[in-house]
Amino acid sequence: MCGIVGLIHKKSDGTENIGAQMTSMLQALKHRGPDSTGYAVYGDNNGNQVLRFKVAEGADLDGSFDIHAEISNRLEKVESRLKELGVKIVSKQAPTEYAHRYEIVYSGSMKKLADFLEDIEGVEILSIGNSLELIKDLGDASVVAGKYGLNDFDGTHGIGHTRMATESDVDIRSAHPYWAYPFSDISVVHNGQLTNYWTKRRALESKGHRFSSDCDSELIAVYIADRMNGGAELEEAMKDSIEYLDGVFTYLVATKDQLGMAKDVMAAKPMVVYEGEDMIALASEEVAIRTLFDHRIDTFDPYHGEVKVWQH
């Protein structure tokens, strides 16, 4: 029983406090998933790309071996490989010892960059994007937002997730959202269970796609990436996913300028939508959307098998 939220300001100039708005929505859904919280937020990166990655799990810091020295070693390897690829590092931030944010300039292949860095043991790319920043960690929204400074993040749209671990570990690797590797600026959150996960995963892996976890939700992100790599538009890929995915699910996808929602044909997993003139808000429960307003609003539930896409 996880919780998902989405928010897009259709006419925004990028100065909306997306971080604080999503934090209030996600905190309202804390009861649906206390294990971890994740954000995929979209803003202006001054024309550069943002690389979000981790070099360890937070829980590793409590281990008995010298993880701190290993983290330093992994960071040195990351920077060495970035230099080898001709990547210019504009700025660096380290919200935690294990999670890092690099603003970069790079004109080469995203897949080559991600694969080269993830070949370093313990390194995982969370996202690469011109506008996307993907942040996830253990704890509720207030904890994660405070740790990563998300209450001051200005942007246009985002999606988020509160997770209750069911079939995979309680760690950052298994937390949502998922970046649709290797595509810039595409992310996914999901509530539900996919019964054909392993069959479809093996098929996608045979085509060269990589999975960073054993969480069934990652299948959706990789599938969307595969379809868009073949030339499909976001809405087309999402509509086809209704038949491709078995199980019960509701999921959200965000791109650099779009927010999409899909529900399975049984409509077993909840979703509530507020559709205003300037803003769209979606959540697993209406209580999350109402944190954004101090007046009465009207919402609706999407029907079974429905796909909707909104443009920024």
β-strand number? 15
Q: How many domains comprise the coordinates?
A: 1
Strand order of the largest sheet: 7-2-8-1-14-13
Q: Please identify the structural class as seen in this structure.
A: alpha+beta
Fourth CATH level, the homologous superfamily: Aminohydrolase, N-terminal nucleophile (Ntn) domain
Oligomer: single chain
Distance between the termini: 30 Å
Rounded Rg: 18 Å
Largest sheet composition: 6 strands, antiparallel
CATH fold-level name: Glutamine Phosphoribosylpyrophosphate, subunit 1, domain 1
Mean pLDDT: 91
Helix amount, in percent?
25-40%
Run of helices and strands: EHEEHEEHEEHEEEHHHEEEEHE
Number of helices: 8
* CATH class (first level) name: Alpha Beta
**Uncertain residue ranges:** none
How would the global form be characterised?
globular
Descriptive overview:
This protein is an alpha+beta fold and 312 residues long. The strands form three sheets. A six-stranded antiparallel β-sheet has the order 7-2-8-1-14-13. A five-stranded antiparallel β-sheet has the order 9-10-11-12-15. A four-stranded antiparallel β-sheet has the order 4-5-3-6, covered by helices on one side. Helix 5 packs across helix 6 and helix 6 (218-229) crosses helix 7. The chain is globular. The chain is built from eight helices and 15 strands. The protein has one domain (3-44, 131-311): Glutamine Phosphoribosylpyrophosphate, subunit 1, domain 1, CATH 3.60.20.
